[in-house]
Write a structure and sequence with these properties.
The complex is a heterodimer of chains A (695) and B (122). With 695 residues, chain A is mainly alpha-helical. Chain A contains 13 helices and no strands. Chain A folds into 2 domains: 241 residues; 336 residues. Chain B starts with a strand and ends with a helix. The chains are: A mainly alpha (695), B alpha/beta (122). At the A-B interface, helix 4, helix 5 and helix 8 of A face helix 1 of B.
């Protein structure tokens, strides 16, 4: 055409217009030789192997990628499980249900401290009361001193009277009475000396008893004040720990809620990952289908010559096979794209949950760190044990002093019961002698009376001494009872204090271990979780199967569409052998869905046309009968040569390739697969391919 | 002689209570846990129970529930000793089991007053 002169061109265009050339062109196209299509088909043959390879490579590489995703997901889920366990363990700690029951042990220790302090205080108070009774007894005893003084004065008066009466009797008879008077005076002086010393001792014991009672009072106040305050502080500290750990429980509930969301998300990912394997198998079938097409192209006699001796390709079979593979490719692509979308979106959701969990757990860790960091109950228990030790020491000292008091009162009792008693006995004996002497003498009535009176005073003194001795013995027994009880109490207190100290160490150890466990476990888990989380994020960022889909599926789909377009004109004729081959291909499908897609694709193709059985496959036809809607053939049309056919361009790829943006691939459910879908917006047209250009 | 059963897991407390109450003219029996207390109640007549509310194995509440369910002990006077920490819990059970409460620290005068009010000496 480009060799024609401009005038000739203008003439040719005018002729074409006047002769309705487009209609003639359409008719001529339908008359073009069948082997023209074969050539174009064979030009597509070399690319089939690369398409197969791309599809199989997609299966392999997507498998690797999805496997890596599954591994990371598994690691992430493992960390989720650890996080759940740690959160649960911390929640148990908050509720006091940890393995060692550290909080409960601390409360029990606190209770023991209370009991110990209170019983010590009670005993101190009780001993004070008893000491008061001891003091009262000693004061009663002390009151007897005046009686002894009175008795002494009486005796002195009686001695004076005795001497005066003795002066009136005969000198030879005075001696007895003067001796008696001297003896009684001497003894009375001894009695007074002894009584003085004894009552001085009683006064000293009384003073010491009062001192001890005041010290017991001081001990009681110390217990009530300082130790009680410490115990209250311990109670507040334990309560403060519980209150400080309470937010952990709330954080734990939030963590549990987030963790509950991870399971369904993970299940969605796992479910979606399975589609990769399904799609891989589908692509393997498609590759096998491509192999069948290749086999058909290369099978039998290869064209060595030209013209009518060249073997014809079965366009019907190729058309159907291409459409079937295209259907499977479309379905597989849709499936893998949907699965990929689910995987990436769910993984994003999972990572978002992970971000939330890390935040929650960090807060939980901070709360626990703060709670245990401000927890000083171990030091408090140590101080409490030390305070109790000091109190026990005071109690021991008090006991020792009570022991000393008991010894001193014992001595006093001995003084009264033995020394004083003996003196008074002497006085009574001497007085009796005087009475006897007075009885022998005439006119000694006065002397007798005096002796009798001395005897009476001495007897009264003796009775007083007995009473005093009993009182002191009673006081002694009371004091010994106090000492005995105090000894027993001190023994029990010492045992309990030692147990308290030991338990305080045990509880301190438990609380320290609890604190360390909570802090270290939380920190470790946080670090490990962050690492896995980052790893998963990185993996997600470098996923490349979306682009892999485009590079693998796209060219294969294009090939199928091209082959389908080229073989469209003769697609209605399906030889028996081709039908068998297609059926055999279908039987290879192991999945029901694929089988149904294959069946549907064939059914739609067969619905619009009648299958006709060709003669021997070696029959060669130069021309196929035109379609019913074609215009009648124009006379004088000359068939083109092979060179012109070979120079003819392949169908416009852009016109028949699937629309990458709105997805117009034809699927198995499309009842008119020959026509593009409505979504593409293109009007259906009978595309007979590029025809022979006469001009 | 009126007999008081002292129930407390702490030896020093048992010693304190029994010593003091004996001085005041009561006979005392001391046990260290609720189970032993239940056995003593069934073996000899007891006129008053002095009960620590916090004990291991069987605490005061459980002891009260069991003793009140035993025939013949529905009206046995019980004086429960509790600390401020367990006060709320103890008072909640008071209406249900019918007992009296004494808060720690147990001062001898307060103890004697309560005991003599519940179990006056003849």
């Amino acid at each position: 055409m480009h060799l024609m002169t401009p005038n000739a061109l203008r003439f040719a265009r005018e002729i074409r217009r006047r002769c309705h050339w487009p209609r003639w062109q359409t008719s001529l196209k339908s008359w073009r030789p069948a082997w023209v299509g074969d050539l174009r088909i064979r030009r597509l043959q070399p690319a089939i192997a690369s398409h197969q390879e791309a599809l199989l490579r997609f299966g392999h590489e997507s498998d690797e990628e999805f496997t890596a995703l599954a591994v990371e997901l598994s690691r992430l889920n493992a960390k989720f499980s650890e996080l759940r366990e740690q959160s649960t363990a911390l929640d148990l700690v908050v509720q006091g249900l940890d393995e060692e029951r550290a909080s409960e042990a601390a409360y029990q220790l606190y209770k023991s401290s209370i009991d110990l302090v209170h019983s010590s205080m009670g005993i101190a108070l009780s001993e004070q009361e008893q000491m008061l009774q001891v003091e009262a007894g000693l004061q009663n005893a002390q009151a007897a001193q005046s009686h002894f003084a009175h008795s002494n004065i009486t005796l002195r008066v009686l001695m004076m009277g005795l001497r005066m009466e003795a002066a009136r009797v005969a000198p030879e008879e005075q001696g007895v009475f003067l001796t008696v008077a001297d003896a009684v005076q001497e003894t009375a002086e001894k009695i007074m000396d002894t009584v003085g010393v004894a009552f001085a001792h009683i006064a000293a014991v009384l003073a010491e008893t009062g001192t001890e009672r005041r010290q017991l009072r001081h001990l009681e106040q110390s217990l009530h004040g300082r130790a009680h305050a410490n115990i209250s502080a311990i109670h507040r500290e334990l309560d403060a720990l519980q209150a400080a750990l309470a937010p952990c429980h709330e954080e734990g509930l939030r963590i549990a809620a987030l963790l509950d969301q991870t399971t369904p998300t993970s299940l969605r990912i796992i479910s979606a990952l399975q589609h990769q394997d399904i799609v891989r198998q589908k692509l393997e079938h498609v590759a096998t289908g491509f192999s069948d097409i290749t086999t058909h192209m290369t099978d039998g006699q290869l064209a060595q010559g030209r013209g009518k001796h060249r073997r014809r390709l079965d366009h019907g079979y190729l058309h159907h096979a291409a459409r079937v593979q295209q259907t499977h490719l479309v379905a597989a692509r849709e499936e893998i794209e949907t699965a990929g979308e689910k995987v990436t979106s769910s993984l994003h959701s999972l990572l978002a949950l992970g971000d939330g969990l890390m935040g929650q757990f960090s807060r939980m860790e901070e709360v626990a760190e703060t709670a245990f960091g401000n927890f000083h109950v171990a030091e408090m228990f140590a101080r409490e044990v030390e305070a109790l030790a000091q109190i026990a020491d005071q109690g021991r000292q008090t006991n020792q002093k009570v022991t000393a008091l008991v010894a001193r009162i014992t001595e006093i009792v001995e003084v009264f019961s033995q020394h004083l008693g003996r003196h008074e006995y002497d006085v009574r004996l001497v007085a009796l002698n005087a009475q006897i002497a007075a009885c022998r003498m005439p006119d000694a009535e006065a002397l007798n009376k005096l002796a009798e009176e001395i005897n009476r005073v001495a007897t009264a003194n003796a009775a007083l001494t007995d009473d005093l001795t009993r009182e002191l013995n009673h006081t002694l027994r009371h004091l010994e009872g106090i000492k005995h009880e105090a000894d027993e109490f001190l023994r029990v207190i010492s045992t309990e204090r030692s147990a308290l100290a030991a338990n305080a160490q045990v509880v301190t150890g438990k609380l320290n271990r609890l604190s360390t466990t909570v802090r270290q476990s939380a920190a470790r888990l946080n670090q490990e979780f962050a690492a896995v989380h980052a790893s998963c994020k990185a993996l997600l960022a470098r996923l490349c199967f979306p682009s892999l889909i485009t590079t693998s599926f796209g060219p294969a789909e294009t090939f199928c569409l091209q082959l389908s377009a080229i073989t469209q004109a003769r697609s209605q004729i399906l030889s028996e052998e081709a039908a068998e081959r297609l059926e055999a291909h279908q039987e290879r499908y192991t999945m029901q869905q694929e089988n149904m897609a294959h069946q549907a694709a064939l059914a739609t193709l067969a619905a619009g046309s009648a299958a006709a059985t060709l003669g021997a496959p070696e029959d060669v036809e130069l021309f196929d009968p035109p379609p019913a809607e074609a215009f009648p053939a124009a006379p004088g049309m000359i068939a083109d040569t092979a060179q012109d056919n070979e120079s003819a361009a392949l169908p416009d790829v852009a016109a028949i390739a699937p629309d990458a943006t709105n997805g117009t691939p034809i699927d198995a459910g499309n009842t008119s697969p020959e026509k593009p879908t409505a979504a593409s917006g293109k009007a259906p047209a009978d595309d007979l391919g590029d025809g022979i250009e006469l001009f | 002689m009126k007999t008081i059963l002292v129930v407390d897991d702490f030896a020093s407390v048992r010693l304190y209570h029994t010593t003091f109450l004996k001085q005041k003219g009561y006979d005392c029996v001391a046990v260290s846990d609720g189970a032993e207390a239940l056995r003593v109640l069934q073996q000899r007549p007891i006129d008053l129970v002095l009960l620590d509310m916090v004990m291991p194995t069987m605490d005061g509440i459980e002891f009260l529930a069991r003793v009140r369910s035993m025939p013949g002990f529905a009206s046995l006077p019980i004086l429960a000793i509790t600390s401020e920490a367990q006060k709320a819990e103890t008072l909640e059970s008071q209406a249900r089991y019918g007992f009296h409460v004494l808060l720690k620290p147990v001062l001898p005068a307060a103890l004697l007053e309560q005991v003599q009010r519940l179990l006056p000496l003849e």
